[in-house]
User: Which sequence fits this backbone?
């Protein structure tokens, strides 16, 4: 279960990096942070 979670997290981070390389990295960053907060607040 943990390996699947980290695999999903890694792919999400890769997509996040790709988005940041484009424009609007600030909004993407806030989405990324709120996503991580939502996971770890549980």
Assistant:
């Amino acid at each position: 279960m943990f390996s699947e979670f980290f695999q999903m997290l890694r792919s999400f981070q890769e997509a996040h990096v790709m988005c940041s390389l484009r424009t609007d990295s600030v909004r993407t960053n806030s989405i990324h942070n709120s996503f991580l907060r939502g996971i770890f607040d549980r």
